[in-house]
Design brief:
A four-stranded antiparallel sheet has the order 2-3-1-4. It is of the alpha+beta class and 101 residues long. Helix 1 runs antiparallel to helix 3. The chain is globular, with a radius of gyration of 14 Å.
């Protein structure tokens, strides 16, 4: 299984842009190959090792790297990037990890 994690920092006004991004993220669930998807706001913490400065985190599980590659090229993902991300996000970090089944 491959896990894709994306961390988003949004432009001001933060509440508006975070809400817009949350709404748009839901469209990604319809992309074939997405086995599991979770997203939500940063959890405030006083633990120095935890970065809670972002607005929204997203994690998605895929069966394989091939499935992740198809997701990246899917029209709904491209629309999400060209629309909601470009309109609301000032910074994004993404991580992929795991092993193919």
């Amino acid at each position: 299984m491959i896990t894709h994690v994306a961390i988003f920092w949004v432009d001001k006004p933060v509440e508006k842009h975070a809400a817009d991004l949350r709404k748009a993220v839901k469209t990604l669930e319809d992309i074939p190959g997405v086995k599991r998807m979770r997203f939500g706001p940063a959890v405030p913490t006083d633990r120095g090792v935890v970065d809670d400065s972002f607005a929204l985190g997203l994690s998605m599980d895929f069966k394989s790297r091939k499935a992740l590659k198809k997701y990246v090229k899917h029209p709904l993902h491209i629309k999400f990037i060209q629309g909601a991300v470009k309109a609301s996000v000032r910074r994004i970090l993404a991580y992929d990890f795991g092993d193919d089944e």
